[in-house]
Design a protein that fits this description.
It contains 5 helices and 7 strands; from the N terminus they run βαααβββαβαββ. The protein has helices spanning about 10, 15-30, 35-45, 100-110, 125-135; strands at about 1-5, 50-55, 60-65, 85-95, 115-120, 135-140, 150-155. Helix 4 links the parallel strand 4 and strand 5. The protein has a 7-stranded mixed beta sheet, with helices on both faces.
Length: about 160
């Protein structure tokens, strides 16, 4: 697994890479996947930790994040952590080893001064893996489609 995590993100994310990431998102999330503009904005956000996973020069997946204080949940819930030291994961997608990806993310997040990772888990199978990796479900809320999402956090 090769990763791209540093440098000028405008150079890292070009037209070809955004097409590859859009395909990964579409395969993972179908009609609720992020738009090209959202993906580009997420990957170019220098406030969070953005990681592209590549294998043989092909993008296999990505993790995008931002400070939790910069994310507005689609639903009100009492336990959402807006601390400046909490990094909110906007998207984990693609074909990569989840545990290796989370280890890399934790390292990079700690370097950037974060002490907690948070996310809204929409996929029950992925949520099970996230709990095994150390995430804890803090609250179950309605997602933006009216289904349930687990609000999860992990201390790093």
């Amino acid at each position: 697994m090769n990763e791209i995590q540093n440098g000028n993100r405008r150079d890292i994310v070009n037209e070809n890479s955004i097409n590859e990431i859009q395909n990964i998102e579409n395969n993972a999330f179908g009609n609720i996947s992020a738009t090209r503009e959202m993906l580009l904005n997420n990957l170019q956000n220098t406030q969070g930790v953005q990681i592209l996973f590549k294998e043989n020069n092909e993008i296999m997946g990505s993790i995008t994040s931002k400070p939790a204080s910069d994310f507005t949940p689609w639903t009100n819930h009492s336990l959402y952590n807006t601390s400046d030291t909490t990094l909110y994961l906007e998207s984990i997608s693609g074909k990569t080893d989840l545990y290796q990806a989370l280890d890399l993310l934790k390292q990079e997040a700690q370097k950037a001064g974060y002490t907690t990772l948070s996310l809204h888990g929409l996929n029950p199978r992925l949520n099970t893996l996230l709990r095994r990796a150390g995430f804890e479900t803090k609250e179950v809320v309605d997602d933006y489609l009216g289904k349930e999402a687990e609000y999860m956090e992990m201390e790093i």
